[in-house]
Amino acid sequence: MGFLTVLIYIVLSLTVGSLFVSLSADTLTINILSEYLQKDLLPDPYLRSGLFLTGAILILFCLRYIQASIGRSKKNKSISFESSQGRVNITLFAIEEMLKKMLEDREEISHVRIKVFLRKKWIEVMIKGILTSEVNLVDFTKEIQDRITEKINTLLGEDKQVKVNLEIRRVNIGNKGSLREDSEPEVPFRNY
Fold first, then answer.
1. Does residue 104 lie within any of the structural domains?
2. Which residue of 44, 52, 112, 192 could cross-link 129, Cys pair, CB 3.0 to 4.6 Å?
3. CA torsion, ordered 21, 22, 26, 28, to nearest 10 deg
4. Coil/strand/helix, residue 156
5. Contact between residue 127 and residue 114 where contact means Cβ atoms under 8 Å apart
6. What is the pLDDT of residues 92-125, one digit of tens each?
7. In this structure, what CATH number is given to the domain that contains residue 96?
8. Which CA distances in Å does 71 have to 64, 75, 82, 111?
């Protein structure tokens, strides 16, 4: 979203919000607003044409923003390229699933969540997971980043710039999902 669009939305939101607050607090009434519009703004043709142009520009900005949002959401959901036999589309969801299966085979990490983003000049991969064993984090993350970069480049058939962000959400050292059992069973009613 461009700076001008953000500025217009902020000014418009503040104006409409202030108007609603003033109307609900009874500091401004519909009658006062109506009299001001009828006496000062609407009789002057220059102000009237200025209001028209401002409204038309705001509508055009809103339509442009909607068009850009729809186009961006359609465009960023798949990677497309031409081969000698035709057009190939690979969805980002397919890449996410492939990478998730690759990482779920690793014992060092569990509860893996992967999100792939298509940027203008690169592909960004965001990985979140729980570390389940003691490892050298620098070597482990470097190995994961290299394997994912290699996998994506193998899949797409060309060298693309891939940025891999790895976020360790928790450290849960032990077996994946298993609880440690007590060595002695507790005697029932012993504290009573």
1. yes
2. 112
3. -160
4. helix
5. yes
6. 888 888 888 888 888 888 888 999 888 878 888 9
7. 3.30.300.30
8. 10, 6, 20, 33
Contacts 24+ apart (CB under 8 A), 59-62: 61/4, 61/5, 61/8
Range of the domain at 112: 90-171
Question: 163 with 125: CB under 8 angstroms?
Answer: yes
pTM across the whole model: 0.53
SS3 category, 31: helix
Q: Report the interhelical angle of 3-24 vs 45-75 (nearest 10°).
A: 120
Nearest Cα neighbor of 114 from 101, 102, 103, 128 is 128
Burial 114-144 (b: 16+ CB within 10 A, else e): bebeeeeeebebebebebbbeeeeeebbeeb
* pLDDT per residue as tens digits for the range 37-93: 788 777 888 888 888 888 888 788 778 878 877 766 655 577 777 778 888 888 888
Residue pair 104/127 in contact (Cβ under 8 Å)? The answer is: no
Q: How far is Cα 82 from Cα 89, in angstroms, rounded to an integer?
A: 9
Pairwise CA distance, residues 25 & 94, whole Å: 53
Q: How many domains does the chain have?
A: 2
